[in-house]
Amino acid sequence: MKLSRSGVIAKKIGMSQIYKENGEAVPVTIIRVEENVVLSIKNKAKHGYNAVQVASFDQKPQRLNRSIKGLFEKANVAPKAKIKEFIVAEKYLLEVGCKIGVDHFKKGQCVDITGTSIGKGYAGAMKRHNFRGLEASHGVSISHRSAGSTGQRQDPGRTFKGKKMAGRMGGKVVTTQNIEVVDIDQELNLLVVKGAVPGNKQGYIYIRDAIKKALSY
Q1: pLDDT tens digits, 129-160
Q2: Cβ count within 10 A of residue 94
Q3: What's domain 8-119+173-209's architecture?
């Protein structure tokens, strides 16, 4: 894994679209990046790896337990709702109390965004795995949306693990890679990226430099 700069904690606001000069509509996601504060750092000599722990989005002190309150008091940082640790290269280690904003990213660069996908509950094979379903006629009755056969014959006489079947869909940590930053609004702390990102509206997401793309600055 390529180690790079620290990422940021953000919130997904929702989706919209912008128009190019030729009239083409481009789907975009609006993301709010409030000020991220460095809560603590870890170095290879003491902890075995280099990392930066950041916190963001103000929180009432009474909603935090004593151990978490102690972290903020030690760093002299106001209580925050979300804490996230990013593994970084040694040259990108920051000082405790350092602030990271939306200007951490540049227009035109690519980022990787991690979030928890929208939970769909228990779903069938057609919705969950895009199965085509059974025939609409020719003797098929009632079971048009069933998965069909899932096993073999007497040998091996069982269904293999990992077989695509009905089950719980969504609600998993998903990372979407190489998402282009279309625009940045520093006054409103908004980041506009091309396409969709995982998660619900107002859900927390984590953004960092794309590991498969080199920084151009």
Answers
A1: 999 999 988 889 889 999 988 888 888 888 89
A2: 16
A3: Beta Barrel (2.40)
